[in-house]
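Lab manual, section 2.4: Encoding a predicted structure.

Procedure: take the sequence of the chain (424 residues), apply the prediction step described in section 2.3, and record the output as structure tokens. A sample record is shown.
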Amino acid sequence: MKKMIIHGGKRLSGELTIGGAKNSTVALIPAAILADTPVRFDTVPHILDVHNLKIILESMNVHSTFEDDVLTIDPTQIEESELPSHAIKSLRASYYFMGALLGRFNRATVTFPGGDNIGPRPIDQHIKGFKALGANVVEKNDSVFISTGTEGLHGARIFLDVVSVGATINIILAAVKAHGTTTIENAAKEPEIIDLATFLNNLGAKIRGAGTDVIRIEGVDSLRSRATHTIIPDRIETGTYLSLAAAIGDGILLKNVIPEHMESFTAKMLEMGVDLQINEDSIYVPRVSDLSPVRVKTMTYPGFATDLQQPITPLLLRANGNSVVIDTIYPQRTQHIAQLRKMGADIRVQDNLIVVGHSSHLQGAHVEAGEIRSGAALMIAGLVASGTTEISRADNILRGYDRVIDKLRSLGAQVEIAADEVQV
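Recorded output:
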């Protein structure tokens, strides 16, 4: 495990470029094994999840190279094999190999995935989709065994009981080579789903309706790469740096941004009194003085993202009054609260609401990043705080944020990564 050491209290300024979307990347890499040719992605984020996915690919004799921001994957010699459980358990999105392997081989065996501990994230809607496509699914000994008969997968009409990004993606991966037409109703609408569909369509898939609540997939026999796929900018990374810029910045420009993906987040910043300058593909955040409290309620896209309720918290601490956060997606996503209180933050859970009060002074402390977005909140708080903050389990931050140390230093932050002598 690593720790992040931050010497805070210094105003930051400058510009940085947002990397490719983590939540796209972790779906696109498993999707690559459906191709009958090598594939190439650019603007790939330098995060630990990518390296863990490369380990999983290698276990199947799928070779890959990652140089600069370009990831090349060659699935042409793919072999069925047991996937490495340590890599599977390190990231939740490894469950996309269920749909991808099912689409490639008509069967899959995957250890139940790990990832952040932010409350229950069942895979019942994934399994419902696989069964509708003609698969048999057995869960046993912490593994999922999926198989089909000799006829393989067939198209089906699937209505998701709850909107699920993971289930929507997994069903697309399984259905893209299935016989006939598959319709997913009550589908998730996230930009990362559009990104995946764009990649697969450029390989020859026939997917329509991505970005709406009804997606139709007409199965095809072959998928072949014709061009490099550019991954969309990471909207969660964007929101994290927008919060940072407003909380401790003296003028920060974020480049490689899709403002339309950020509207629910930037609307809250504008409501708080942040005078954002939103351009075609960039956002400038000026120095901020007075901030008004707001009420944040997480929703499925295009609502306020659950992944951004923690990163916005250090900014809410600066508001003149009590802000309220309601997470309807993952109500148990509260690991940051106790850690921020160690730094002097006025934040508490009250009647199932997170109440964030004005905190005029934060003090550096030893805290723990229990998961990616909690770690992001602590990172911003550490930059705001006086003195030194040490964040244990900083690997969780590195899992989700592209070259985060380099980017923070480019803004003038004093931050470093070191080995954590104490295993938490």
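Check your result against the sample. The mean pLDDT is 94.
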